[in-house]
Amino acid sequence: MSITEIARGYAPPREAESAAGSSGPARADLVRLTPATARGARVPRWLRRTTGPVVLVALWHLASSTGILPAEVLAGPGTVLSSAAKLIESGELQAAIVVSMSRAMTGLAIGGSIGVLLAVLSGLTRLGEDMVDAPMQMLRTVPNVALIPLLIIWFGIGEAPKIALIALATAFPLYLNVYAGIRGVDQSLIEAGRTLGLSRWGLVRHVILPGALPNALVGLRYSLGIAWLALVFGEQINATAGVGYLMANAREFFQTDVIVVCLVVYAFLGLAVDLVVRTLERIFLSWRPSFTGA
């Protein structure tokens, strides 16, 4: 029996008694309540979410067209779109995105795997906590950018230091959140699992790890955001390809339009991977009712 079944099968005594006394059978399924404000909203939510970016771009265009924002300081939206079209037509932008995505996902896979493994070891056993938690707490306070000279000495100036920097940056958010999720599992669920006859491994598999999943997904979202930040720094290490390489070249020639294109690409890549994590949350956490806003 998993944590989902335990959560769905539990009913408070008063509710159970009232359900038993009614004409119909008692229902154990959870009912998701929709706020009255959400039911009465007429404007589609996707339209409300896009209002902010559209207004921001409109203000940017207005400031550029009126001369309040000089082109030497920041190119206008029209110039940025024209530069993006040229980069797409030449294939430079697509190739740079593929290279940057490969670096970010490889570093995240390595760092995330290490962070989750250490969090499980530290969260499940006191010996693991004594051996792992203190070094991790010390290392996470060291600025990752300060490690770039050491990474260059250890791994050279190729792809390895870039991936290592991303791995170091993404390991700690996942470690902290998974560890907190494991230690934050409701003790009553543990006792319910023991009452149902689950073994130690059964408790870990069906109760503790699923209970820590919400925190793990939060940590994944943090790690994805930090992965892009680390990627920007990593692609300054003798990069010959990638979005950071395009940005570095544009900086040398004061091409603010290309720099803005690269920044927008970083933003959309981050938004895309965040959307993937949100989808995973809806799939794996469908058993957990949560507040959706008033």
Describe this structure in words.
- Residues 1-26 are annotated as: Disordered.
- Belongs to the binding-protein-dependent transport system permease family.
- It is a multi-pass membrane protein.
- Pfam families: BPD_transp_1 (PF00528).
- By secondary structure, the chain is mainly alpha-helical.
- It has one domain (3-7, 80-284): Orthogonal Bundle (MetI-like fold).
- It has helices at residues 3-9, 13-21, 36-40, 45-65, 77-90, 92-124, 126-139, 148-155, 159-183, 187-195, 200-234, 243-252, 256-284.
- It starts with a helix and ends in a 10-residue tail after the last helix.
Primary descriptors:
single chain; MetI-like fold; 294 residues; mainly alpha
Write the layout of secondary structure elements.
Elements: H1 3-9, H2 13-21, H3 36-40, H4 45-65, H5 77-90, H6 92-124, H7 126-139, H8 148-155, H9 159-183, H10 187-195, H11 200-234, H12 243-252, H13 256-284
Helix pairs in contact: 5-13, 6-7, 6-9, 6-11, 6-12, 8-9, 9-11, 10-11, 11-13, 12-13
In short:
This protein has helices at residues 3-9, 13-21, 36-40, 45-65, 77-90, 92-124, 126-139, 148-155, 159-183, 187-195, 200-234, 243-252, 256-284. By secondary structure, it is mainly alpha-helical. α6 packs antiparallel against α11 (200-234) and α6 (92-124) crosses α12.
